[in-house]
Every structure is written in structure tokens, then in C-alpha cells.
Amino acid sequence: MNNPFQMQTAETQDSPLLAPDEGPAAEVLNPGGQGAIVLVCEHASSRIPRALGDMGLTPEARLSHIAWDPGALPVALHLSAAFDAALVAARFSRLVYDCNRPPERADAMPERSEVYDIPGNRGLSASERARRVREIAEPFREALAGVIDDRLAAGRPVVLVTIHSFTPVWFGEPRAVELGILHDADSRLADAMLARAATETGLATARNEPYGPDSGVTHTLKAHALTRGLPNVMIEVRNDLIADAAGQARVAGGLARALGAALAARGTDRTAADRWGDA
Fold first, then answer.
1. CA distance 160 to 153
2. Are strands 116-117 and 179-182 parallel, antiparallel or unpaired?
3. What is the rounded average pLDDT of the residues 96-118?
4. pLDDT class of 172 with cuts at 50, 70, 90
5. Does residue 271 surpass a pLDDT of 80?
6. Alpha helices in the chain (DSSP H)
7. Pairing relation of β-strands 173-174 and 169-170?
């Protein structure tokens, strides 16, 4: 059976994916931040470019966790304020291109996510995939690399911290973990955070849960931190805990204290984390 969406995109695959008024694929918030931390939110938005229509998805699916990480950007913004950190955020849905995956992985543009089929990603041609890499993945990579390299060139320390959220139920199975502290080959910062995270946040905390390196979720850490020898950690928060402003502020406060303590233990400036106090 023909896929009408695929036929539509095949006719326009050589045209730009993003219209001029849709803006860049990535944005850098607080670019002049003086803190050592560089924050990343790869799944900050559920937005889909107009050229792709609704990707064959229902409104419910387009706003669900398959399209973005609900609550992750507000938490990242709180941490940006706490540490005076630059924040690099993706501006389009991970269903268009998952900026935490390399282009060769099938789940960079998944045909299915959990229980949802993604008609707009079914049977993409090589040129269609290349267009998304060119207009979404590469600008995001260049924005993040530029922030990091500018700081390194100025002789400033850099600590890479990525912020994500995960659904409390996966394939019908509830998840007990509330906070995941993830790492790849370099566990230095994750180890230091794990020593304080449960106490400071009050959340059920686990290492490399509910995902880990074997799941392919540490691409940003590997591509931007491990290659430069930078301390790094990936933070995953269960999204029901950050569904409103109060929860976002509460969880971000605990994370700021845990991260600040971890940086202090590693001899890195904690930069204003103390303003959270015991809140």
C-alpha cells in the first residue's frame, strides 16, 4: 500500500526542509554564560517543520514522549540560571531527527517509537535522510561544538551536561526509577553525582537507567565530551515528576545541589549552585 506522506515528501525532497520563518534547527540560550557547565537539551521540542505536515501522527502522538522529552527544557533552563550555563537546545522534534543519535542509526529517524508507527519516517530515501541530516543534525552539532570550542579556546573549563526526561510507563510496564544518572566510558562526573543525587533530590536514583550506553543514548556525550576529554553526565528525569512548573523547579533545585556538590568534589567551580540552598 502506498504511503501518501512518502509520496508527498518524495516530490519535495530537494527543497529546503525548514522555511526561513521557522528559524534555525538549534538555539543557544545564555550564550555568554560564564559557568563551566554547557547544558544540552536534544529533545526540547515537539515541533515538526511545516514541510512534513503532521508526519501521519495524531495530535496525541505528536505531543507524547515519543516526539520530545516533556519537562526537560524547563529543568535545563533552571539549571542554566543556577550555574550561569550556556544551553544548546534542539528546536524540532526528535521524530524529524534525533540529535542524540548519529545519522547511520535507524532510530535517528525512527519508523516506530514504542507503540506508535511513524508514517512520515517510513521508507525514507537516502536523499530524504540526507536532507534531515543537513538541515537538522549538522546545525545542531555545529552549534554545540561551537559553544564548547569557543570556551576551550579561551582557556575556560567545560563540563558537558545533557538533560532528558523519560516516560513512567514503557510498553505497559511501570518504571520505578525516578532519576537516572547516565555515562559512557567516562564515569567521573556521574560517580560524583551518584554519591549525592538521591539525598539531594529525594528521588529513586540509578546508574544508567532506564537507558544506558548499550541503548545508544550517549551519542552526544561520546561525540562532544569523550572526544575532548571533558567531564560529562547525562541526566534522565521521569517526566511525571516535572509535568508542571512546581515540579520542574523542585527537581531542578535538587539536581543543582547534587551537580554543584559533584563539581566541587571534582575541583570544578560550582558557580552559583549555592543559591538553591535547601529548597
1. 16
2. unpaired
3. 94
4. confident
5. no
6. 4-12, 59-62, 72-83, 126-132, 138-153, 188-194, 197-201, 219-220, 245-265
7. antiparallel
Q: How does residue 266 score in pLDDT terms, banded at 50, 70 and 90? A: confident
Do the Cβ atoms of 219 and 103 come closer than 8 Å? no
CA atoms of 102 and 114, how far apart (whole Å): 20
219-238: pLDDT as tens digits:
999 999 999 999 999 999 99
Say yes or no to pLDDT of 277 above 60. no
Give counts: helices (H), strands (E), the chain: 9, 11
Q: Whole-angstrom distance between the N-terminal and C-terminal Cα of the chain?
A: 57
Cell of 225: 565530551
C-alpha grid cell for residue 180? Answer: 537516572
Query: What predicted TM-score, i.e. pTM, was given to this entire model?
Result: 0.91
pLDDT computed for residue 118 by the predictor: 95
- Residue whose C-alpha cell reads 519535495 in the numeric block: 12
- Please report the DSSP string for 129-195 in residue order: HHHHIIIIIHHHHHHHHHHHHHHHHTT---EEEEEEEE-SEETTEE----EEEE-SS--HHHHHHHT
